[in-house]
Amino acid sequence: MVQRGYHRPRPPSPHAIKLNLILIFAFFFLVFIFYTRQWHLLDDQRKQQPFSDEHSQTDRMPDAELWDAPPSYGLRSCVKPTSRYKAATGWDHYMTVRSNGGLNQMRTGIADMVAVARIMNATLVIPQLDKRSFWHDSSTFSDIFDELHFIETLQEDVKIVKELPQELANVPRARKHFTSWASTSYYEDMTQLWKEYQVIHVAKSDSRLANNDLPLDIQRLRCRALYHALRFSPPIESFGKVLSMHDADTAEAGGAA
Ligand SMILES: *[C@@H]1O[C@H](CO)[C@@H](O)[C@H](O)[C@H]1NC(C)=O
Q1: Pick from 120, 194, 219, 231: most CB atoms within 10 A?
Q2: 145 domain-assigned
Q3: Closest by alpha carbon to 121, among 42, 187, 219?
Q4: Ligand 1 center from residue 188 Cα (angstroms)
Q5: Dist. CA 248 → ligand 1 center (Å)
Q6: pTM for the whole thing?
Q7: Which residues make beta-bridge pairs with 182?
């Protein structure tokens, strides 16, 4: 049997303490060097990424570049329908809409209504713009937006007409305040109304469709409506161009001075 030796711990010599301290110090020094290097690498990476120092970029940006289209940073628009998407056929159910709110709210509301008309298999009548709540303006849809472009851009998605057909002008309409942030299934249920009515009048267009959990093709339709179909009318577009050119000229003149 081997007897285990019993060693009394010897008090460490001052020399050993010094050596230990040096080792500990060297260890921390290495850790420090390692982290500093990592930090610099990260910092370099961040500088290469586009969103990081936008401000300093703007500061250095020459005026000419400022008026160019912004870089896309690799982001792509998601307006194309999926392969499952079917072109719209015409429906003899009609949906009339009164948009409410300011211009921006009306734009998103109109895009929602395009999607709702698609879900409900309805033909959409060009929406009426708000003239009462705080948009104190008598402009019609075609004063603000390029109506023909709107109809044509969305022709594969929803049939859109300028006016309700004459023979339907006086038929009783279902007048609906659709629930805010409703889902697709809500509108699918609402198609029950077609059993009794040929025309549904939507009294408000704002926030009538949920932002999440909608089928991909419905979200993309919204994007198409908002970013492709809803273009300002030619007079507003050209006025906008004049304004931005004026600003660009002023900026250039200012830059040269
Ligand atoms: C809309 O029409 C299509 C094609 O006829 C049909 O498959 C779909 O169920 C209809 N949608 C609703 C909500 O009724």
Answers
A1: 120
A2: yes
A3: 187
A4: 9
A5: 50
A6: 0.69
A7: 209
